[in-house]
Automatic annotation (TrEMBL):
Top EC class of this enzyme: ligase
Role of this protein: Functions in two distinct reactions of the de novo folate biosynthetic pathway. Catalyzes the addition of a glutamate residue to dihydropteroate (7,8-dihydropteroate or H2Pte) to form dihydrofolate (7,8-dihydrofolate monoglutamate or H2Pte-Glu). Also catalyzes successive additions of L-glutamate to tetrahydrofolate or 10-formyltetrahydrofolate or 5,10-methylenetetrahydrofolate, leading to folylpolyglutamate derivatives.
Alphabetic keyword roster: ATP-binding, Folate biosynthesis, Ligase, Magnesium, Metal-binding, Nucleotide-binding
Pathway involvement of the protein, from the record: Cofactor biosynthesis; tetrahydrofolate biosynthesis; 7,8-dihydrofolate from 2-amino-4-hydroxy-6-hydroxymethyl-7,8-dihydropteridine diphosphate and 4-aminobenzoate: step 2/2; Cofactor biosynthesis; tetrahydrofolylpolyglutamate biosynthesis
Assigned protein family: Belongs to the folylpolyglutamate synthase family.
Pfam families per the UniProt record, alphabetical: Mur_ligase_C, Mur_ligase_M
Name of the gene this protein is made from: folC
Classification via Gene3D superfamilies: Mur ligase, C-terminal domain, Mur-like, catalytic domain
Protein name: Dihydrofolate synthase/folylpolyglutamate synthase
Organism of provenance: Pseudoalteromonas caenipelagi
Molecular function, one GO term: ATP binding
């Protein structure tokens, strides 16, 4: 069947449907095709300084922290993130603001005219579209979140001003490998010779430092060159002559520490007062986001073991406040579901499982089976996140906090439920 190509007067939804079906694969690793189109459309000829942000978890919060601190100093900033929660427009921000549909439509139309016979995946279209928008707006800095891995991700066609790896853990094992060393090596592919490369992971695999040393990257390493630690008033960050203390932020301190170190390395760090103000205002959607005070409800995108460990810490804090924990989990089938459940099982009193929609969705019954292998806590099943919330909220006691997690899709369903 021939798919009709949208035009500049088509809707963004028309374009997104087209992009989802124009390439036979959802993911196709490699840079040759996407770089060819970028060169044909002159997207790599830019005056913006590009910061590549890779990592298993923490890319979004690190990018949001960098964005806030750069904007506070008067720089213009373009930020590219994926996936989105509710609307595609969330993926591209200029100076912290989402753009009109037409900005994306114009970018996609330009790419469609310029790609020739080269096929692109949905993510590759999105990446090149973001680069086109950033070039059009001529921003000072571009914060480019790596999608999958690093070495062969579409974002890695650029020449970065600096590179960041937030954390390294097991995810996307079918593409990146089943050890932290293999995952780390792939992520280190975003490093460049004689270019700052900040690594925020607290237990850095040797493959990361080996590759960085091999290509003469300007490595700056957590727990060697910089550090953070809890203090009486929040947390302390230390790098070179910087020894600052801040109130505990709403995002992981590890990501804040990584962002501050990068800016210090680039001589872009604002004053301590400015940093404190930015951190006090900083929240990121879907990262232990509170949806309701009464009843107490939170949602989090945790979907791999590392992010589940961080979620466990947040849940444990709720328990110290006297709350029982009701966990509503919905996940994709290709994730390490058993490990995610194991990380939080000892701090959850009641479980509910929901099925997601789509070809990658895991069924609630399978999640229930995994939970029953690890805990004797009661566990119910539901056909969707919405039906689960209808049931749970109708009888949730005041002494119980509901935590909804497992996927970006799960969080999107929860947020949309509240918006209605």
């Amino acid at each position: 069947m021939t798919v009709q190509t949208p035009c500049q007067s088509s809707t963004l939804d028309d374009w997104l449907c087209y992009l989802e079906g124009v390439h036979p694969s959802t993911i196709e690793m490699g840079l040759e095709r996407v770089k060819r189109v970028a060169e044909q459309t002159q997207l790599l000829d830019t005056s913006s300084k590009i910061i590549l942000i890779g990592g298993t978890n923490g890319k979004g919060t690190t990018a949001r922290c960098l964005e806030s601190l750069l904007l506070a100093q008067g720089y213009s900033v373009g930020t590219y993130a994926s996936p989105h929660l509710i609307r595609y427009n969330e993926r591209v921000r200029i100076d912290g603001q989402e753009l009109d549909d037409q900005d994306h439509i114009d970018a996609f139309h330009m790419l469609e005219q310029g790609r020739g016979a080269t096929q692109l995946t949905y993510f590759e279209y999105g990446t090149l579209g973001a680069l086109a928008i950033f070039k059009r707006y001529a921003v000072d800095y571009v914060l480019l979140e790596v999608g999958l891995g690093g070495r062969f991700d579409a974002t890695n066609i650029v020449t970065p001003y600096a590179s960041v790896i937030t954390t390294i853990d097991l995810d996307h094992k079918e593409y990146l490998g089943d050890t932290r060393e293999l995952v780390g090596y792939d992520k280190a592919g975003i490093f460049r010779a004689n270019t700052p490369a900040v690594v925020g992971d607290l237990n850095i695999p040797h493959t990361v430092t080996d590759y960085g040393t091999e290509i003469d990257a300007d490595l700056v390493l957590a727990n060697k060159d910089f550090s953070h630690m809890l203090s009486d008033n929040g947390f302390k960050w230390q790098y070179l002559d910087y020894d600052y203390e801040f109130a505990t932020p709403a995002i992981p301190m590890q990501n804040v520490s990584t962002a501050l170190t990068l800016l210090a390395k680039l001589n872009l760090l604002p004053t301590q007062d400015v940093i404190s103000q930015c951190l006090s205002d900083l929240t990121v959607e879907g990262r232990f986001q509170q949806l309701s005070e009464s009843p107490r409800v939170y949602t989090d995108v945790a979907h791999n073991p590392e992010s589940a460990r961080y979620l466990r810490q947040k849940i444990a804090q709720l328990r110290t406040q006297g709350f029982k924990i009701h966990a509503l989990i919905a996940m994709l089938a290709d994730k390490d579901k058993a490990s995610v459940i194991k990380e939080v099982s000892d701090v959850v009193d009641i479980w509910s499982c929901a099925s997601l929609q789509g070809p990658r969705a895991e069924q609630a019954e399978n999640l229930q089976t995994m939970i029953r292998l690890q805990t004797k806590a009661p566990c119910a099943i539901h056909s969707s996140v919405q039906t689960a919330l209808d049931d749970i909220l109708a009888k949730q006691p005041n002494d119980t906090a509901l935590v909804i997690f497992g996927s970006f899709f799960t969080v999107a369903d929860a947020i949309q439920y509240w918006q209605k």
